[in-house]
Amino acid sequence: DLAARVARREWRAADVARHFIARVQALNPGLNAIVQFAPDRVLAEAQAVDRRLAAGESLPLAGVPFTVKDNLWVEGYRIAQGSLLFKDFVAPRDAWAVARLRALGGVMLGITNCSEFACKGVTSNLLYGATRHPLDPALTPGGSSGGAVSALASGLGLLALATDAGGSVRRPAAHCGLVGLKPSPGLVPHPWGFAEPNYGLSVIGVLARGVADCAWAFDLLAAFDAGDAAGVPIPSGLTQPVPEPPPPGLRIAWSPRLGCDFAIDDDVLAMLQARVDALRAAGWQIADADPPWPAEVREYPLIALQHAGLHALYGAQWRADPAQLDPVLGAQIETGARITPADVARSLRLRERIAQSLAGFFGAYDLLLCPTAPVTAWPLDQIGPPVIGGRPAGPRGHAAFTPLFNYCGVPACSVPAGTVRGLPVGLQVVAPRYEDARVLGFAAVVEGCPH
User: Fold this and answer.
1) Domain with CATH 3.90.1300.10 in the chain
2) Span 250-274, average pLDDT
3) Coiled-coil annotation: which residues (predicted)?
């Protein structure tokens, strides 16, 4: 609606920008969500949009303010990946997705905080500190895209670009009541930027306040770029801005513990079960069924690849000056130093078998529903909840439900599914690879289903 009004010249992009600049100035100090903010640049960018419209350009995103995670390049801004090692790095060009949104009339509002190298499940780092939850400053919004969700949920922008290598878009979205899409690999190009510790797993994700906006942004971003090694010449699959509901005969599975006996808080599970039951009452055929994963699958079964990647990229810096890196990242780098080539080969083979298992499951089902996160947001000073579902939890227990879908290269979207103890929870919608339109279509069904 905003873009249409600006395009019709009912509103000026510059006035929209002034509104959002004022919101950032008023609210961000209490959130620490946006870590690079240049009001003069924002206003100049919006004024340029007004001039382009006056010259007759058609701009689908006219005046829409969006934020960018601190591991994606924005030309002329300091982009640090939340790391002291990159505190003085100035991006030489826009990331592909950033350039695309700007070309379509979007206005870059600010750079959002993330954990160092986007490799921790909460959003805190030595460079910028911790980002706070928009509903309770004593809580974390999760990570690694906590700045993106804290800003968006607080009305600091209307869209957010972030990355997802194991759930970094979807879990924070669930914790803050937002829609977060992890697309299939290669559909949103990312041919240049920082070296990625989670090589081959990370994708550009989209965050929005509703499914329609998320689908609209994804459709505008989906493209082929031959410079992206993962790129595929496949369109988004969406035929209209608002996703079409899938056919009523869809075969849907509900897997509350994902076939791995993952721990989940009882009240979170009850809320998600109520949403699934409401979908059943609305006529959707949803079976209780679990994917048949390989026996080795547990929470984050391929985390060795991240540790090895971090060691390869930053092991020398850690050895030279440990004070320059988050100790949590340092521990991962130390673990990575002990990973052998044979360990990496075994992980890659396991990834192949994980993907084959889910592909076989999708021979019998068209969609999979499961929790996005097994908990609500937790205290800011904790790396993760110490207990989940009555069981002791490790530092990644809260993240168990998302990384398998990165390993499989399938689309997954977190949709708000109610509140527990006053805090949002999310339901995850998953489909076979490149069936992103199906995911978004059913995400819209979940969003609109009364419960």
Assistant:
1) 2-221, 252-295+351-448
2) 98
3) none
